[in-house]
Amino acid sequence: MINEAAVWAIVGLPLLGGFLIIAVLRPWTRSLWQASASVGIVAIGGAFALSLWALNSVRGHHGESIGFSPHSWFTVGGDVTQGAFELTIGVLLDPLSAMMAVVITGVSLLVQVYSLGYMRKAANAEDGAFVDYPRYFAYMSFFTAAMLGLVLAYNLIQAFLFWELVGLFSYLLIGFWFHRPAAAAAAKKAFIVTRIGDFGFMLALMWLFSHRGEFLVRGQNPFEIPDINSAAPLLSASLVTWAALGLFAGAVGKSAQFPLNTWLPDAMEGPTPVSSLIHAATMVAAGVFLVARMFPLFEASSWVLNVVALTGGVTAVIAATMALVTNDIKRVLAFSTVSQLGYMFIALGVGAPGVALFHLLNHAFFKCLLFLSAGSVHHSVQTFDMRYMGGLRAWMPVTYGLTVIAGLSLAGVFPLAGFWSKDEVLAAAWSISQLTPGTGAGVVGQATFWLALVAAGMTAFYVFRLIILTFHGEFRGGIEAVPMADRAADEAHSHVHKGESPLSMLVPMSVLGLMAIGSGAVLNSVIELGPVPAHWFSHFFNEPSPELVVWIAGLSMTLVLGGITLAVAIYGMKWFDLARMPKQWHMLNRVLDQRYYMDYFYETLVVRRALFKGVFLASDWIDRKVVDGTVDLVGWAGRNTGKFVGQLQSGQVQAYGIAVSVGVITLLWTYLVRS
Amino acid sequence: MLERLLILSAILFCIGLYGALSRRHVIAVLISVEIMFNAVNVALVAFSRYVTPAALRAAGEVTPIAESTLLAGQSFAVFVIVVAAAEVALGLALVIAMVRTKDSVDVTEASLMRR
User: Fold this and answer.
1) Best A652, A660, A668 residue to mutate vs chain B (most B CBs within 10 Å)
2) Fold of B2-109
């Protein structure tokens, strides 16, 4: 049985490692870069071991948390016995946080090992690619620690602190190559767009605080997650609805759901292992985690659940369509992540958090692997633009094989991991529409089912488009074929290196490959598999076993195979020439390529027109005319009073004499005549 | 009798004040100031003749004849005449200085105090 100190150490080890690297190693060891990498990897390895221990300890608890009581942090409003409330700090170890901790530390460990090989190339590059190796590993450790702190948080204030830290370190990592203007802008965009959602989170916290009375009368704490979840069905509707909506706004921002999905593709400017980590385990998973963590609160308001499901469904389709036409390999994967996160929100919205987490788990493995493959490809051809790739399987057989595995898993091909969880999502959406037909939830379930099904077909198409463009056909020259105008400043002298990536990159990728094959079938198998009982994952979360609906699985498989066939027909066999399609098709292509003009809408219309020309101009006017005007008026009054009084001093003695006489007469009048 | 003398004094003072404030010729201003001095002198002498200091009367040490010969006011008037003579001498010196610098006897032109 794990003790509390060990759980704290899961967060503490990467944190300590990060501090050690940044404060002790970095000042000295630009040359000893292995030292900082080792510290980072050892710290995260320790956290991974502790997480496994934690998972093992939680296993026997039937979905309950291990009761570590929280510690008092500070109290607000005087005495605790007299209606003041106490802010606590502690760890909440239950199946959810244990599973998340294992995924986060495991993926982070693999990514950091991969970074050894990937970043080293960049670190040794003589073409001006400046890499501060210790800084990279310190940020990675802090980023992982922040995410672990979030999943283990006992109360929402604690969660919010780590939530913001996740945002901060994502900013630092996306902008890791800060000398590239695009990376600096992408980091800023990621931070600002997620902050918009975070504001909703903050409003939810304020809302809970302002309604703390409802908790205090039950002897509960308005911020402690177990208290909120246990009290959720009894709380007033407005409290539940607005709190859940606010938290969901935070989740939408962090998980890049519609309409805050614009930051994630730009975040591809960061180093590839960072993208991998962001997409697999940290950052974007935080939104799904938050909704799953507060699920009883969401469940108490069916209206909010419908919003969650619809947001997920719309996002799944929109992001998948964007991925269809993108040429940057990492951006295709980014859109794919947004789309897959949409699936998770569908699952949450139709009331199946266990399914969402199962998809999150499987997605973490295959998406992480896809990004690492993209990094491996970049390692060879030095570009991410698929128009300049092709034929790479000739010299990258391992990367090719792993990409195909991950791609099939992402597309949801039987019996790889993605198939099982995607099928559970579809089945969950369908079953709610059958259980409650005609109601809001039923209609939403039906709508999201079809949206998810459409997205599944498109997923298969863009994944195979990616694989064919990258690995099949003729080699189209890599970075050397990219026009100079399209290259970043530090890519000017890059050369293609025709060879497989080093073992430090391939080993973590292979581990992920195994997970991408097996995690779905083994962890939540429909039948008993030796030591693993059937539906282990669902039972671990104390949820009913999802049933395998054969016709849904068959339908989705048909769509998936159709998507694959279409991709092969267009890009592999070249049966159609896309350039000869009718004009409407090119217009559609353009709309998708511009991501439905969402960036244009936000950047040009909202920010430049509405904000700059409207709000900022108005506040500028108020600043100049009202605020400055008041100050100027005070100065003007002083100056002109002086001028007026100064004119009384004429230098004319007789005028002074008249003034004195008038004064004397006035005084005489006042004191003699009137009294 | 006192009232009449005080009215005379006030009339003289007002004539002098008016002259001092309204005449532009500096000699005329000086003459007007002299008129004001003398209005004050008239008032002082009148008070001296008709008013007995209350302290003396309360002590009862002065006879009515002694009262009428108390000369405090008259001596004050003599002082004023002396001071006025000195002031006229000074005033005339200023007039000469003004004529030399400004070539004018107009008081409105003596405005150097303004800046």
Assistant:
1) A652
2) Helix Hairpins (1.10.287)
